[in-house]
Design a protein that fits this description.
Layout (H helix, E strand, L loop, with lengths): L1 H14 L2 H9 L12 E5 L20 H12 L6 E4 L1 H10 L6 E5 L21 H6 L4 E8 L6 H17 L3 E12 L2 E5 L2 H12 L8 E5 L5 H5 L6 E4 L7 H12 L4 E6 L1 H4 L6 H11 L4
Parallel strand pairs: 1-2, 1-9, 2-3, 3-4, 4-5, 5-7, 7-8, 8-9
Antiparallel strand pairs: 5-6
Helix pairs in contact: 2-4
Length: 293
């Protein structure tokens, strides 16, 4: 049935673009965390950086109708609290009516396109704070890659600091995803040693004029207890690499989620495009790792 609804989306975008803002104004909102004090967010902001591949499929996320169908399934699971996405995807989901009573985090800096000469220039090209507030979203997410040898790092740190300060002025969550990044030839890779993740936590936790509304989105690494001990800010952990066996991912997640300070998880491609293609079952297994279901 989604094909008919997708056709309607296209018509609305041509003839009734104001319907997007109207749908945002009507949307029922809810607290950031559930009754258990946790949050489970599905992330779908990869396409905006040109990152369409999942596992061996380089164009897995290229079909927008298919992606929306998977997101609708995910958002329909009772263990899922909301979504993290760029404006185009959030607006499609608003028009589909699946964001009622859901947490919606707007993805902000998507300028560092995968494989580009300027990949580490993570400038803000998607949501800005004013639009997040005007649309009644619940917060903004930003990528903050720290590459000491790359001069693009300094303006990204500054821009993230400004965005954190502005979101806090609206009493909205700033979800910051830090990585210690390195360049090897034409490839950018993230250093996931516990020491470098701790360095990235120390730097990003101090960005902005206040950290009152800052949350950190962190990878699960070998010594996760040391990482979480590096901050008092609430932490959500990444829900796994699509190339990693699901059983190993769930075991590592369960251990991380048991740590004091870890308040939930944000997972994307590994859940939306599982090996068996059963999105609902993959979501429910991840929800069980969070203690739901």
């Amino acid at each position: 049935m989604l094909d008919r609804r997708t056709a309607r989306l296209r018509d609305i975008r041509v003839h009734e673009p104001q319907a997007i803002a109207e749908a945002a104004r009507r949307r029922r909102r809810r607290p950031i965390v559930g009754a258990d004090g946790k949050i489970f967010i599905v992330a779908a902001d990869h396409p905006a950086r040109g990152s369409l591949g999942v596992g061996p499929e380089p164009m897995a996320m290229a079909d927008r109708e298919d992606l929306l169908e998977r997101l609708c399934i995910a958002l329909g699971r009772p263990c899922v609290d909301g979504v993290l996405a760029t404006p185009d995807i959030v607006e499609d989901l608003l028009l589909l009516g699946v964001l009622e009573d859901k947490v919606v985090i707007g993805s902000m800096n998507r300028g560092g396109l995968v494989g580009s000469a300027f990949e580490l220039d993570d400038r803000f090209t998607a949501y800005d704070v004013e639009t997040i507030a005007a649309m009644g979203l619940d917060g903004g997410k930003m990528l903050c890659r720290i590459a000491p040898e790359d001069p693009a790092t300094a303006p990204v740190l500054e821009a993230c600091g400004r965005a954190i300060t502005a979101l806090a002025a609206h009493r909205m969550m700033a979800m910051v995803e830090p990585f210690w990044a390195r360049r090897s030839g034409d490839r950018i890779w993230n250093d996931l040693s516990s020491e470098k993740v701790i360095h990235s936590v120390a730097i990003t936790a101090a960005l902005g004029a206040t950290s009152a509304y800052t949350w950190l989105k962190l990878p699960v690494v070998a010594d996760m207890a040391r990482v979480v001990a590096a901050t008092t800010l609430p932490v959500v952990v990444l829900g796994g690499d699509p190339s990693t066996r699901e059983g190993d991912t769930l075991e590592a997640l369960a251990k991380a989620l048991a740590l004091d300070g870890v308040r939930g998880l944000a997972a994307g491609r590994a859940l939306l495009y599982p090996e068996d293609d059963d999105v609902a079952a993959a979501i429910d297994r991840m929800g069980a790792a969070l203690g739901r279901g």
